[in-house]
Amino acid sequence: MIKPIYSKGKIVAKTGNEAMAEAMRQIEPDVVAAYPITPATEIVQIFSQFVSDGIVKSEYVAVESEHSAMSAAIGASAAGARAMTGTAAQGLALMWEMLYIASGLRLPIVMAEVNRALSAPINIHGDQSDTMGARDSGWIQIYSENSQEAYDNMIQAVRIAEKCMLPAMVTTDGFIISHCMEVVETYPDKDVKKFVGQYKPQRALLNTKKPYTLGSIELQDYYFEHRWQLAEAMNKAQDVVLDVAKDFAKTFGRKYGMYEKYKMDGAEIAIVVIGSTAGTAKVVIDELRKKGIKAGMIKIRVFRPFPAAMIAKDLAKVKAVAIMDRADSCAGTFAPLYTDVAAALFAHNEGKMPKMENYVYGLGGREIAPEHITAVYDKLAKIAKGKAKPSNKVEYINLRK
Amino acid sequence: MNRAQIKKAASCQAPLRASEIAPAGLVEAGTSVEFNTGDWRANRPKWFKEKCIHCLLCWIACPDSSILLKADKVKTSVMTGIDYGHCKGCGICAKECPVKDKAIIMEEEKK
């Protein structure tokens, strides 16, 4: 359970959606443009209530689709406003072309995203297929294990995005985090506002004294250079994420990094996981550690930019590692997180690789229970001892084949 | 990109590096001055100074700011000609000209 850390903090009961809406109220962006979609509806619904009650001065644009929501956020951000939106699954999919425009135009829009399965078959429950699909869109991606992290990540994302001139999405797992009531420590409005600071864009279209064109055509001659600038901005974003996290820890007391290491000291077997399942895994690891099994975990917080070199270093001494993906690539190879971790290990560890397994779990909200994670560690223990071999293909957890 | 950079870029002799250009393909206002954007015109507006009543309807309607003006002795703007470096030959000026015996007519561009 969340324990109070900040001297002026307030312990409250909030769902993930309420926590994200609360962060948005305190950030008080200039413009929010959004369209409702389960399970993210509440975030913007609660925020629109704040607007109509006069609690925030933000402009709320009720649009007719998510494509329009992202377009309006892009317009507002280009005009010089601090702009935010919120969505999930099909909504994010409908934003697709505009996601690339937001990052290409280097607009620091912040999105509250609730991870939900993509249709078909139609499903409203949690998995990470939606944002994993957007992993190459040039957006910073920050995932949250619980409501507290969702709240803290929203506050940090604003500063990270604006410093990097990159859009950022903060995610929670659909229903598991978005709709479950949890204990959250919130910070006073004044302190959050001070931490986030005023948005001072380098250039703004509404500044008519210094007019410019944004979004002009670039063909073979300059497109490549601008896309490289975008990739380079993402490369440099890791330092910004860590700087903001450092300041956040200094201000509010909670420590964040690119990822969280749980009992990785001396770990022989480990899993790499994203989101709420990390909470379940921690319980499993504690049990295993009591039995003398050296189990550990890396919980990815920031997936884009991907902390490749750091992860490679931390997994170097592990004998066997299972990469847990809550999204499938349907690629004939492996799921997204495995692909990145494998590439990181290969590139940075001079060929010294732990044995690796790839598990896809929890699609469409399928349950992932402690016994499922225990089974993964059991297999890893066998692999570490040389009694079993990695299957070298995607394994599915809790699936009826 | 600013005007000097655009001029350099347009020359195609020394393409700029990523480190030299603003993020997001941002282009400063007024850079079109450095380009001859009227070289693909099919029709060409012809202006008859003696027929012109200087109502400036063509100046209002021109999508390429190609109607040239100057202030006369009483500080009223008068038309002085057409900027053929930027005119695309759309013909709106000729269409909008309210003078019965048109002060601007379109004729075929002879290369």
Topology:
The complex is a heterodimer of chains A (401) and B (111).
Chain A: E1 10-14, H1 16-27, E2 31-34, H2 41-52, E3 59-62, H3 66-79, E4 83-88, H4 89-104, E5 110-115, H5 129-133, E6 140-143, H6 147-164, E7 168-173, E8 182-186, H7 189-196, E9 212-213, H8 223-252, E10 259-262, E11 269-274, H9 277-290, E12 295-300, E13 302-304, H10 308-315, E14 320-325, H11 336-348, E15 355-360, H12 370-384, E16 394-396
Parallel strand pairs in A: 2-3, 2-4, 4-5, 5-7, 6-7, 11-12, 11-14, 14-15, 15-16
Antiparallel strand pairs in A: 1-8, 6-13, 10-12
Chain B: H1 3-11, E1 27-28, E2 43-47, H2 57-61, E3 67-71, E4 77-82, H3 92-96, E5 104-108
Antiparallel strand pairs in B: 2-5, 3-4
N- to C-terminal distance of chain A: 36 Å
- What's the Cα radius of gyration of chain A? 21 Å
| Largest sheet strand order of chain B | 2-5
The chain-level structural class of chain B is alpha+beta
Mean pLDDT of chain A: 97
Note poorly predicted spans of chain A. Answer: none
Order of helices and strands of chain B: HEEHEEHE
Q: Might you state the CATH topology name of the largest domain in chain A? A: Rossmann fold
* Major beta-sheet overview of chain A: 7 strands, mixed
The largest sheet of chain B is:
2 strands, antiparallel
Number of domains of chain A: 2
Which percent bin holds the helix content of chain B? 10-25%
| Lateral strand order in the biggest sheet of chain A | 3-2-4-5-7-6-13
Q: Which pair of chains forms the biggest interface, and how many residues does each contribute?
A: A-B, 21 and 14 residues
Q: Detail the poorly predicted runs of chain B.
A: none
Assembly context of the chains: heterodimer
How much strand content do the residues of chain A show? 15-25%
Strand content of chain B: 15-25%
Indicate the CATH class of the largest domain in chain B.
Alpha Beta
By CATH, the superfamily of the largest domain in chain A comes out as Thiamin diphosphate (ThDP)-binding fold, Pyr/PP domains
Q: Identify the overall geometry of chain A.
A: globular
